[in-house]
């Protein structure tokens, strides 16, 4: 998920209201855990078992749909729900957030502009407006954020969200160094609290400045158990092409509880360490991602029979794209199955891999001339 979308997703999660009656284990926390662990059938059953406000239950249903089926289906579901409850501000708010995820700020603006001032002045709607401006006019977003930072009635949590939005606005405007400097000038307690938020740490790590890695290194030394900072530092190193350093910090974050098995296995595969890559691949929760990654690890390790053995499973899961077809053709060629390999290469003639496929076909033709 792109960084802006990740932050917008955080805004959506943070505004979800309480489900049903309160208990020691809050229903909304239980529901979010089920979603994060991709236990969608259990999440669906959980929603069916609780008694809550119908509009809010529809918001949670859309949250499930967004993760399981994608933004488009979640948005269509909320549009239908809003037709049923046309005065619902909670439905309008969350539908606006989904429009923003689809990069449709005008539609989001149309939803909120007719709301009364007592509603739009609520902080969650201030956030919606900021996110609209971030897509339409980042400087206007910056001005709005600055204005609301002067509001002395806002809680520390609200202020932290505004700091996050301000840094996002500066990044959007290309003022990467200013964004980092703004963070560095914040009070120490505020910085510590911000870096405990996973999405903020990733935002910090994505700042393109020569000072980003040194800043994160210092913060990581100060907070060695902060898994968010370790992940952010790993991402920064990876963006610089420093795979071994990235691996060190991804492994630290993983050990501290952030599931990064997929990313670690990718790096290990690039570093030509297939056995370690397979070890982490076994820990990947997403079955499709695990299978596709394993196929590519086998290819990298030149274990072509094992790679080919996965193809039917990949086809059943609709995971065979043009890149995978080309890699399949290459593996077949390596095992001497020339005719099948060439047939696949010809199927790729109009694809993005046509150049590689044609080159492979030519090599096979030269090697097997009568």
Distance between termini?
51 Å
Number of strands: 0
Biggest β-sheet description? none
The shape, in one word, is globular
How confident is the prediction overall: mean pLDDT? 89
Give the percentage of residues in beta strands: under 5%
Q: Please give the radius of gyration in angstroms.
A: 24 Å
Tell me the structural class: mainly alpha
Which residues sit in consecutive blocks of at least 5 with pLDDT less than 50?
1-10, 20-24
Treating each run of at least 4 consecutive H or I residues as one helix, how many helices? 25
Would you write up a description of this structure?
It contains 25 helices and no strands. It has helices at 3-15, 27-36, 40-49, 54-69, 71-84, 89-101, 105-112, 117-120, 123-136, 138-149, 156-172, 176-184, 188-195, 198-205, 212-222, 227-239, 243-255, 261-270, 274-281, 287-300, 304-309, 311-316, 322-334, 338-347, 354-367. The chain starts with a helix and ends with a helix. It has 370 residues and is mostly helical. Mean pLDDT is 89; it is low at 1-10 and 20-24.
Quick synopsis:
The chain contains 25 helices and no strands.
Keyword list:
370 residues; mainly alpha; 25 helices; disordered N terminus
